[in-house]
Amino acid sequence: MGPATLQDVLATQELASRSHRRRDVEAENRALIELSRSLPTSPDGFLQKACDVAMVLCRAQSTGVSLIEIDHGGPVFRWHAVSGRYASNVWGTMKTEFSPCGTVLDLGTTQLMKYPERHYTVLRNVGPQIVETLLAPLKVHGTAIGTIWLLSHEDSVTFAPSDAAALQTLAEFVGPVYEVLSHLISITREAGHAE
Fold first, then answer.
1. Is residue 14 very low, low, confident or very high in pLDDT (cuts 50, 70, 90)?
2. What is the number of structural domains in the chain?
3. Quick check: 151 and 132 in contact, CB under 8 A?
């Protein structure tokens, strides 16, 4: 039997019927304040902190940030930051054209997927198994630069509309801040080389 279709793994419509956790706007605000207060001197350090915050805020078992890069002449998603059970996969890559992150950027909105390795067979080589993944696009000035994502690895851990809202809020904050940090660091490096 071949791989499942994309429609077999997309479960975004299920979020509307899940109400097991209410949105906690105060917790989201505290998370953003914590993230802004701890802005480190490296863009990747900021992304790692964002993953750590997302994992606690959304009760995920793994979180990550995948950014689009060119590798061996083609576009890939590189995992710049990962927390939780997937942490050993940091700096790994996945081709953009056949990955959950690529689908989210194609659709342009936050998406929920269940057992995504049924469709994205490359995920079968990455462990542990993903029961659910919730992904939001990261954008800068309307242009997608990657995604921020949550994973559950157990059937008992599922995502709610409140998690989708919190992840979207984080994505809207993380994308532009990462862009500014990256720009400032490159300016600082250029100034250091000029001296």
1. very high
2. 1
3. yes
